[in-house]
Amino acid sequence: MGVVLMRRLRRGRSLGALLLAVVAVVAVHVWFDVLPSNTSASVTAVSADDAVDVAGQQLLLRSVREDEFDAPEGAHALSVRLRSSGGLDATTCPAFLLTEAAGGRVWESSRAELDVPHDAGESGCRAESAPYDILAVFVVPDDATGPFWFDVTDEDGTVLRLPVEP
Question: Residues 42-45: contacts with CB within 8 Å, 24+ apart?
């Protein structure tokens, strides 16, 4: 009788652990996949030739270059250069994102992981400054050839989307 009771107890623990694992997987899925898609950020497409007002300053797309910096095997670097007007009202802006127009894959600026010189330009928007250059560098897989969207988030949460092609 004691052996049967021990087996049932072990089976109950195993089922409990399995149930806990299933709940954890569902919670992680909801946290990372469902909740972010429910955000209601407004996206405004902007011409690549126009300056955009972001974080109290104007940003102008200067150039987009491929392979300007060495990337890991199976990937290539995509550099996006901007000119900022700076100004007394200028504030910092959130990280830049690069979105694949056709596939929807998204990459964050990965300049810190590459050998990018510090004097090549700022990595993001600066507060209260004179005009300056910004350099955002993305590491994208070799099968990502563009076109892309370069996303900048404004202080009110609006995403300003500039088309970029290498």
Answer: 42/157, 42/158, 42/159, 43/151, 43/158, 43/159, 43/161, 44/158, 44/159, 44/160, 44/161, 45/161, 45/163
